[in-house]
Design brief:
The complex is a heterodimer of chains A (403) and B (306). Helices cover 65% and strands 2% of the residues of chain A. With 403 residues, chain A is mainly α. The chains are: A mainly alpha (403), B mainly alpha (306).
């Protein structure tokens, strides 16, 4: 527990460092979110930059992004001026930017929505009318406004993207584990036989053929090939299928090639992401199981006359899946990186796609937001893996508490 | 009789003494590698692909289609046509996909080599510093490495390429910086064992300055292993490059890479599948062969690993 928690905190620190790296990359690189094919006039650009607090110094901007700010004063020229970090003076007139006074006088405040504050306080008090921050910062769960689509909160992008990604990421993990571990065990049990060679080469095929080749391949095989096959088998011979479906020449579309929809739409993305991991899982399980099969306690069990199946499940299973559990951390990273490809290939609206479009469109806040979510997902999964591992293998627990 | 003829154990001993005398570690490694049939076949395939990539302009001349030439008779993507020498068909702009695939492979291999050298340099530096420093520095550096390995550096590379990707040298460097962690760990282990070896201790006792020890004794001994691991890194780097190319980052027009070609094809896989066949086949063959060569080399140099 101590070990896992310590590692979790270290990785959290790395997230902040990664955020800083992303922030600096964005601000130092040429170009910005506001210059498209027709850049806006200089005065509008200036206002836009002030609206997103890009007129502040860089440390101040990063601070505002992380911890938020209470508000900004508007000076006599109607420009944003002084920053109030923690709280506003009581005597200030509070206006939101949209409903500013006609003559431009008065201090201004853009109200922000602090999801976590609201969530935390919603159990105790009702704070509907009191929104004290202009920007809440990501520590309060506010990722800010998107800089390219300026009326959309990054939080809304995330709320749409996370479930869309999970919808195929979790099945692909289950697919790889559910198929890979039995395959590895089976291969180890039949070492050097045809079954072993077949399992290992299937695994090798999965690891070597990259996602970006696997995606079109799978579309060809299942979405088009299978469809044509079914069409050829059934539709031409039994015309009533065609009549009931009322889809002349459009095929059955049994397994669609992506796009969000019903369960069948997520079959191909799941296969593509799953096979990429499958090979490693097969190899790791096989190696672990072989080591266990050659150990003394298995020989004893065999000498006792236990049947092979029981030995496999009682004595070999646990040491065989230990290396797989350690590998789950990199697997999480592989799935999230692969999601960029899969979402592009199958036109799915997930986090990976938002991440790539944010990077190419220079949408600063969206990119920071999606990066944080992806990295947090990874460190959370790593934390889970560490916990599982120390539960499965108590030696880790002891060495962790010593250090 | 028994006096005249040596016993079988004796002859075996003589033989092994002969072996020990006549072969160095490197020769034994080469012998082990040559005995690995898969690795040799893979090496031939890599050699052929490499030659094709180097001689890419030859295919331009042979087919008669330049890599940017737009064939008006085969506009908007025609299927493979052997009479017209469009072996893989043409793409949306009437350009020959075969020639473009070869040129794409050329760029992919070039990026891979330079990026692998970047990874090698960073890995050697990090591993050597960590191994030589020892103690607290070593512990901290290894802990950072541990954390970085479970971090998806590819995501950071996507960002960096989206912002700085116009320049091909920056592309090399960024891709190289994704894949150095394994190398650093291996080098550090090697440096640790070298640091405590007799000849380094002897050098230290003679008063050779640390930098000279590093240059004369450590780096030459580490380099062989590093090169072996570099062959294992190259397919990874090709994968990263094609990944980034697929997302439209990295290599820009008029240059192309295997990843870029596959992404162009994948978008039209239902109507024009031949866009993907050639580049996909070349990418998979290249990766498979490189993996076999790398594995073979590692097994030959480091046989206890298996």
């Amino acid at each position: 527990m101590g070990f896992a928690f310590q590692r979790f905190l270290q990785m959290l620190l790395l997230v902040v460092i990664a955020l800083l790296a992303v922030f600096l990359t964005q601000r130092l690189a040429p170009g910005g979110p506001f210059d498209g094919e027709r850049p806006p006039p200089a005065r509008i650009l200036e206002n836009l930059r002030a609206y997103y607090d890009m007129d502040l110094s860089m440390p101040a901007q990063f601070n505002a992004y992380l911890f938020g700010m209470a508000g900004r004063e508007i000076n006599d020229q109607g420009k944003f001026d002084k920053v109030y970090w923690l709280s506003l003076p009581e005597d200030l007139q509070r206006v939101t930017v949209g409903s500013q006074a006609e003559d431009g006088s008065g201090e201004s405040l853009v109200q922000a929505w602090c999801p976590w504050d609201e969530w935390l306080t919603s159990f105790f008090v009702d704070r509907e009318d009191e929104r004290p921050f202009r920007k809440c910062g990501i520590v309060r769960g506010d990722f800010g406004l998107s800089m390219v689509r300026r009326s959309v909160y990054v939080n809304d992008y995330v709320r749409e993207g996370v479930p869309a990604t999970l919808r195929y990421a979790i099945p692909s993990l289950l697919f790889a584990l559910g198929l890979g571990i039995p395959m590895g065990l089976y291969a180890a049990y039949n070492k050097d036989k045809a079954a072993d060679v077949a399992m290992v080469s299937v695994g090798m095929f999965g690891t070597v053929v990259p996602n970006l080749v696997m995606a079109p391949l799978v579309v060809l095989l299942f979405a088009i090939g299978l469809d044509n096959l079914l069409h050829w088998l059934f539709v031409d011979t039994l015309e009533w299928i065609e009549l009931t479906r009322r889809q002349k020449r459009s095929g059955l579309n049994w397994i669609p090639s992506g796009r969000p929809g019903g369960i069948m739409h997520y079959v191909l993305p799941t296969i593509v992401l799953g096979t990429a991991i499958l090979g490693r899982i097969v190899r790791l399980t096989r190696a672990g199981a072989l080591e266990a099969l050659n150990s003394n306690y298995v020989r004893t069990a065999r000498a006792k006359g236990l049947p092979g199946r029981i030995i496999l499940f009682r004595h070999v299973f646990k040491p065989a899946i230990l290396p797989v559990v350690t590998y789950l951390g990199p697997v999480a990273a592989a799935i999230l990186t692969g999601s960029l490809i899969v979402e592009q290939a199958f036109a799915l609206p997930g986090l990976g796609r938002q991440f790539v479009t944010a990077a190419t469109d220079r949408d600063y806040s969206l990119l920071m937001g999606t990066t944080v979510i992806l990295l947090l997902a990874i460190i959370f999964l790593n934390f889970l893996v560490d916990l599982t591992y120390s539960w499965l293998d108590p030696r880790i627990r002891r060495s962790g508490s010593n250090s | 009789m028994s006096l005249l003829r040596p016993t079988s154990t004796e002859s075996a001993l003589n033989k092994s003494a002969e072996v020990l005398q006549s072969r160095s570690l490197t020769q034994m490694a080469i012998q082990r590698f040559l005995r690995n049939r898969n690795a040799i076949i893979a090496l031939w395939i890599v050699g052929i692909l490499l030659t094709m990539a180097v001689c890419a302009p030859f295919f331009e001349w042979y087919t008669g289609y330049g890599k940017a030439f737009q064939d008006r008779n085969f506009y908007s993507g025609q299927p493979p046509n052997w009479e017209a020498r469009h072996y893989f068909g043409t793409d949306q702009n009437g350009r020959d996909i075969f020639v473009r695939t070869i040129f794409g492979m050329r760029i992919s291999l070039m990026v891979a080599m330079v990026a692998a050298i970047v990874a090698l340099t960073v890995g050697i530096l990090y591993g050597a510093i960590s191994g030589l420093a020892g103690g607290r520095t070593d512990a901290i550096m290894m802990r950072i490495l541990d954390l970085l390995i479970s971090y998806p550096l590819t995501l950071i590379a996507v960002i960096a390429l989206a912002y700085f990707g116009r320049n091909i040298f920056i592309v090399f460097a960024i891709i190289g910086l994704v894949e150095w962690q394994i190398m650093a760990r291996v080098i550090r282990g090697q440096v640790l064992s070298l640091r405590n070896s007799e000849f380094v201790e002897a050098a230290r006792a003679m008063g050779v300055p640390p930098l000279a020890i590093l240059r004369r004794h450590i780096i030459p001994n580490v380099l062989g292993l590093a090169v072996v691991y570099m062959t294992l890194i190259i397919p990874e780097v090709i994968l990263v490059e094609s990944f980034l190319g697929y997302l439209g980052l990295g290599v820009q027009e008029p240059n192309t890479s295997l990843g870029v070609l596959i992404s162009e094809g994948a978008a039209r896989i239902e109507q024009k599948p031949w866009f993907t066949y050639g580049p996909g086949f070349f990418l998979v063959t290249l990766l498979l062969a490189l993996n076999f060569v790398g594995d073979g080399l590692r097994d030959a140099v480091d046989p206890k690993d298996r």
